[in-house]
Amino acid sequence: MTEFSKKITVIIPAYNTANLVKKCVASVLAQDYPEDLLEVIAVDDGSTDATPGILDEMAGEHRNLKVIHKENGGSSSARNVGLLAATGDYVGFVDSDDFVSKEMYSVMMAAAMEHDADMVQASRDEIAEDGSKLADVVIPPSEVTEISPEEHLRTLLMHTGDASFCTKLTKRSLFTDEMKFPEGELNEDFYLMIHMLEKVNKLVILPQQFYHVFYRTGSNSRKTRDNKDYFPPVFTDIVRNADVALDLVKKNHPALTEVAERFGYVQRLDYLLHIPISKMTKDNEFYNSVVSYVRKNMSSINENKYLTGKQKTYLKLLAPAPKLVRQIHAKLRGL
Questions:
Q1: Residue 225 lies in a domain
Q2: Nearest CA to 264 among 292, 245, 251?
């Protein structure tokens, strides 16, 4: 049995998840990692439901659970507040509507010690509201896998890797004043991850699906079906971050330039396929910049060996008249 000496801090940002937060926090407190080496910090981000009371009650029952109450500022703000209070050698994050398996952090820390790794990643699964398991967003490796930061960056740009900090155990020393979660964005994990990878010595990926993502209707990046005009801001953020990633790659990893260009094209395709037709207007500057970018880079899109034929076809169809193509598509589908 592994003897542990490193302390872990798990930060749980919580906002109006009264029906889920108790299960989430309980799953972290139930870890088989030594209790005196496990610090749990729940950050109530200005909740207006019963979340604050539930957290305070749980803190009264568990000496290693600390609750911080703050004004609402978003998930990144709550995570950053948690980081300021963290005292662990390594840090993990769990979203308050998700939950984790009891052995998650002991197995991750054992891997961190064995491989001398700054960052360890557990695999995850996706759970629907009815309790059924959804298709894996990220395919777990068949065995424990050690990869370089550049290799992980490549998987993120190819949409096969996991950018989430919730599935990670990360050395706390990496979270500096310059390495915090960007506040006011929804694609914050990706932004911080691609920058932090410049400081990480290696990443170890575990095959076990210890982290359980709960997909609930109405969360930040999940569109509600009853509002056809709702456009989650995450689709704008992913395009902005694609440009950030391309600049970083050109500067530090030029061999990945074509992969990063492919990433930008796919993010813009995702944007164009999801933006409501009602918002595809001449006065929508961001929408027009996306269309202009695709049109300007059509030659590069055609030559990019990392884009699939289907992706190239969609981009070719959308570039000349995106609104018309979307209208025809909607009509064919009876929407």
A1: no
A2: 245
